[in-house]
């Protein structure tokens, strides 16, 4: 598909509004956006379904690894909403699994487009809603300073 005014109508761009002001998490979020954009490109350019599947799996694998990393940090920080946030992660992972099961054998382009949009919407909503809660907590606890990387 070629769009005259916007060749990538679903493209996401990183902005400071998406920042949680924690460099290692921001780097992961930026990488996630790159993966979402690669998935969007595969769908918009009507690449092979095997390529779309691969890119969808890359997004989902990255999200799960990121969720695990956040949960480790929450324990280190003593984040009071860690348990609720982990439940949000588990719910998102279950939705991802269900989406992949639903479409894994599908050859219908529209189903992959719909699935790609669902995954994008779910993960972006999580970033904008849930991740901003721990950003606010962290900044309040640390006088607006990003954490030092432990290790």
Describe this entry's structure for a reader.
With about 150 residues, this protein is mostly helical. It has one domain: Four Helix Bundle (Hemerythrin (Met), subunit A), CATH 1.20.120.50. It is about 70% helix and about 0% strand. The protein has helices spanning about 25-45, 50-75, 80-105, 110-140. Helix 2 runs antiparallel to helix 3 (about 80-105) and helix 3 runs antiparallel to helix 4. Residues about 1-5 have low confidence and may be disordered.
Q: What is the CATH C-level name?
A: Mainly Alpha
Q: Compute the number of helices.
A: 4
Q: Mind telling me which CATH architecture this is?
A: Up-down Bundle
Low-confidence stretches: 1-6
Provide the structure class.
mainly alpha
Strand content: under 5%
* Number of distinct beta strands: 0
Helix content: over 70%
- What is the CATH homology-level superfamily? Hemerythrin-like
Give me the CATH fold name: Four Helix Bundle (Hemerythrin (Met), subunit A)
Provide tags for this entry.
Four Helix Bundle (Hemerythrin (Met), subunit A); 0% strand; mainly alpha; 151 residues
How is the topology of this model organized?
Layout: H1 23-44, H2 49-77, H3 82-103, H4 109-141
Helix pairs in contact: 1-2, 1-4, 2-3, 2-4, 3-4
């Amino acid at each position: 598909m070629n769009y005259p005014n916007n060749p990538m109508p679903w493209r996401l761009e990183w902005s400071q509004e998406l920042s949680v002001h924690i460099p290692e998490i921001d780097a992961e979020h930026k990488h996630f956006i790159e993966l979402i954009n690669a998935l969007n490109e595969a769908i918009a350019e009507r690449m092979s379904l095997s390529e779309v599947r691969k890119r969808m799996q890359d997004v989902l694998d990255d999200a799960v690894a990121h969720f695990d990393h956040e949960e480790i940090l929450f324990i280190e920080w003593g984040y009071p909403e860690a348990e609720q946030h982990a439940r949000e992660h588990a719910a998102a992972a279950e939705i991802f699994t269900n989406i992949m099961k639903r479409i894994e054998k599908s050859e219908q382009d529209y189903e992959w487009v719909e699935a790609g949009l669902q995954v994008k919407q779910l993960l972006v909503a999580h970033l904008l809603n849930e991740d901003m809660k721990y950003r606010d907590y962290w900044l309040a606890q640390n006088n607006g300073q990003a954490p030092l990387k432990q290790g």
